[in-house]
Amino acid sequence: MLLFVLFHLGELRSVSFLDISRVHHKHLVSLVGYCSTGFQRLLVYEFVPNNTLEFHLHGNGRPTMDWPTRLRIALGSAKGLAYLHEDCHPKIIHRDIKAANILLDFKFEAKVADFGLAKIASDLNTHVSTRVMGTFGYLAPEYAASGKLTDKSDVFSYGVMLLELLTGRRPVDKNQTYMDDS
User: Fold this and answer.
1) Which one of 11, 57, 118, 167 has the fewest beta carbons within 10 angstroms of its own beta carbon?
2) pTM
3) Where would one find the signal peptide in this protein (predicted)?
């Protein structure tokens, strides 16, 4: 049985293995294969050798990335996200854009990964209502408050990730107190 969950809230459903396998873009991690037996599922993705953007921004002892590399990562991840929103029909809303979900190939080209929270939305609806899921610090405030999911929610998360890429700072610093910002 494939993971293929249908919701009755607008035209929204979880992304299935088959949906992911049909999505091909230079800046998206490709699903190579899968196996499903009973309640166990195994996904096989292409190998992306240079770890995550989060690793390169925040890993101990990592060299600082130069600006051309940062620009390449920003543009590549934006192109992958734009493909999901504009060229997939129906469109796919990722719901978890963050530095840990941007993988880097051997040339530091960005590939959007981890479609575990992704939703498919009808091109006809302005939004879909769903349970709020994602990573704190990257969630769009209107989505967090209302549960109304749009592709703009991903764009907000991309903006947070872009700010992290440019500044080298996490969206939420657990070691910093509120008063340290004053």
Assistant:
1) 167
2) 0.82
3) 1-17
